């Protein structure tokens, strides 16, 4: 092999070693780098190593040199992800109900390796398995892949849709006839993944849990114009959807104790306008989908939050409270 080719291979191996084996907190010392390179069949000369590192930096790599004991140490500074960023990604995967236990383990391992071998070890040691309600549908990746194809091509999608009975067995809706829908967006909400779809029959949006789908396929029929959303439209609908359960959209005025200001911001966004009306009280006008999930959310705060407009919802609130008391 020509000398130039050998030199290029050696430089690539140095980069590979530093990416995988070093970080700011643990630089790779000259002796260790030489040994590891030798184990890969690459000869690294300590006399020319600093010049080779200098050349790599000139080519755009960000390799730092520090003194460790009585020798030089090197580490790769510019990484695609920092340890905190990778930890956040791992926690998100752990929290996602729709990813099975086995898929979660594989996913976490892949994310951890993005930080190099030492960082991967740190991440694995700090993984907290806080989600114990993982679903079991191993077809989730295939479902997402097919739905993404449909969204990109603006095509309809079809699938079987199921619930679970008391024994955890699948019970297909519509006697296992395929649903055919017009995909609008895939939305992650409350630890689950949903397909937002346009319903021509009901002239509105419908939502389906992706982990409750079976045998997803892309259809040849194109979607209607109403199914093609802009990004900001998707974000707005997600805020209204309350865990993706359907319902009529309403402008609702809520009065609440000031201690719930953070709750309102968490649910409707930090830009939600609110005013103080009395000692310890605030009022905010929010747009929601009035659904069982909305009522469940509201009833968490009995005594600290109430509807003050519109009147029909006030009456419905009273009726629901009465039924709850009777039961």
Overview of this protein structure:
Residues 143-217 form the WYL domain. Residues 249-325 form the WCX domain. This protein has 327 residues and is an alpha+beta fold. It folds into 4 domains: 3-76, Orthogonal Bundle (Arc Repressor Mutant, subunit A); 83-125, no CATH class; 140-241, SH3 type barrels; 248-326, Alpha-Beta Plaits. It has helices at 3-21, 30-39, 49-58, 83-95, 101-113, 116-125, 140-153, 231-241, 261-268, 292-298, 311-326, and strands spanning 28-29, 63-68, 71-76, 155-164, 170-172, 179-189, 192-199, 204-209, 213-222, 248-257, 274-278, 281-290, 305-309. The strands form 3 sheets. Strands 4, 5, 6, 7, 8 and 9 form a 6-stranded antiparallel sheet that branches. Strands 11-12-10-13 form a 4-stranded antiparallel sheet. β2 and β3 (71-76) form a beta hairpin. α4 (83-95) packs antiparallel against α5 and α5 runs antiparallel to α6 (116-125). The termini are far apart. The model has no long low-confidence stretch (mean pLDDT 82).
């Amino acid at each position: 092999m020509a000398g130039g080719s050998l030199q290029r291979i050696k430089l690539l191996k140095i980069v590979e070693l530093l990416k995988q084996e070093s970080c700011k907190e643990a630089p790779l010392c000259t002796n260790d780098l030489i040994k590891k390179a030798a184990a890969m069949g690459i000869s690294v000369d300590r006399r020319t190593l600093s010049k080779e590192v200098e050349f790599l930096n000139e080519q755009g790599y960000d390799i730092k040199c520090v003194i460790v004991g009585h020798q030089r140490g090197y580490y790769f500074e510019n990484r695609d992800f920092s340890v905190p960023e990778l930890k956040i990604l791992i926690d998100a995967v752990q929290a996602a109900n729709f990813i099975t236990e086995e898929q979660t383990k594989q996913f976490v391992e892949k994310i951890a390796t993005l930080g190099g071998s030492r960082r991967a070890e740190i991440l694995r040691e700090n993984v907290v398995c806080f989600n114990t309600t993982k679903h079991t549908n191993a077809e989730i990746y295939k479902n997402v892949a097919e739905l993404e194809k449909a969204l990109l091509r603006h095509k309809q999608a079809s699938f079987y849709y199921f619930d679970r009975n008391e024994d955890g067995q699948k019970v297909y809706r519509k006697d296992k006839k395929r649903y055919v829908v017009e995909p609008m967006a895939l939305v992650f909400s409350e630890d689950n993944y949903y397909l937002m779809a346009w319903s021509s029959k009901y002239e509105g949006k419908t939502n389906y849990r992706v982990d409750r789908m079976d045998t997803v396929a892309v259809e040849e029929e194109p979607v209607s114009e109403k199914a093609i959303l802009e990004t900001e439209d998707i974000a707005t609908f997600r805020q209204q959807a309350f865990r993706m359960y359907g319902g009529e959209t309403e402008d609702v005025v809520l009065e609440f104790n000031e201690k719930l200001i953070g709750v309102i911001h968490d649910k409707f966004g930090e830009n939600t306008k609110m005013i103080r009306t009395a000692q310890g009280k605030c009022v905010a006008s929010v747009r929601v989908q009035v659904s069982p999930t909305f009522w469940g959310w509201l009833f968490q705060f009995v005594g600290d939050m109430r509807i003050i407009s519109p009147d029909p919802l006030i009456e419905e609130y009273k009726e629901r409270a009465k039924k709850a008391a009777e039961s």
